[in-house]
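ugh ok so i messed up the first submission bc i forgot one of the chains. this is the corrected input, ALL of the components this time, i swear. 232 residues overall. if the numbers dont match what u have on ur side tell me asap before i send this to the collaborators (the ones from the other lab, u know who)
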Amino acid sequence: GAVVSQHPSWVICKSGTSVKIECRSLDFQATTMFWYRQFPKKSLMLMATSNEGSKATYEQGVEKDKFLINHASLTLSTLTVTSAHPEDSSFYICSARALVSGRRVTDTQYFGPGTRLTVL
Amino acid sequence: TQLLEQSPQFLSIQEGENLTVYCNSSSVFSSLQWYRQEPGEGPVLLVTVVTGGEVKKLKRLTFQFGDARKDSSLHITAAQPGDTGLYLCAGAIPTNAGKSTFGDGTTLTVKP
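and heres the new structure output, hopefully the right one now
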């Protein structure tokens, strides 16, 4: 249980184009999903919190017009990198928040496999 | 301010050795997770601990949650090369809108 998928797993695009990344919780509903960026050999950097049915909450320093987030349903959140530039190249990871496991309140994030974005 | 301090940052050991990774904070967590991540992949959940003083075992891995729910440790017995990876701890803070605080990670290399 608690499987999160992410698509695509990797993408290469030209500078100036937009790229959409999908994050799906496959076997549970998630009112909250998170988007992270990770640099080589570093921990996760939270970009934004995606809430179903409402606007995303962005962390300080993250441009909301640059990284568009849509949480259209309880199982799907999308991140669109608009007008991508080489400095946007990175490993993007999403997670879905599960509050309960069986009868236990656990408040755990389950991660997708990540998307490697390369902007030429 | 780093809310969750993880140590050591890097660890290189020989196969068969034991090791412990620590996560410490001044904050109280409603739950704490340990993840393992391999290059090019997303973090994989190893365990969630919820109760202060809780100890969980997963084969050769032993996880402990501090009594005050502010710290945790991961102990690996007889490490194997397959244990190599980035280990991350993450704490869920009740008043933080569901966001978790992550440690900086421990890069473990187990040499055969």
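quick check: DSSP finds no helices and eleven strands in chain A. that seems consistent at least. The CA atoms of residues 21 and 79 of chain A lie 5 Å apart.
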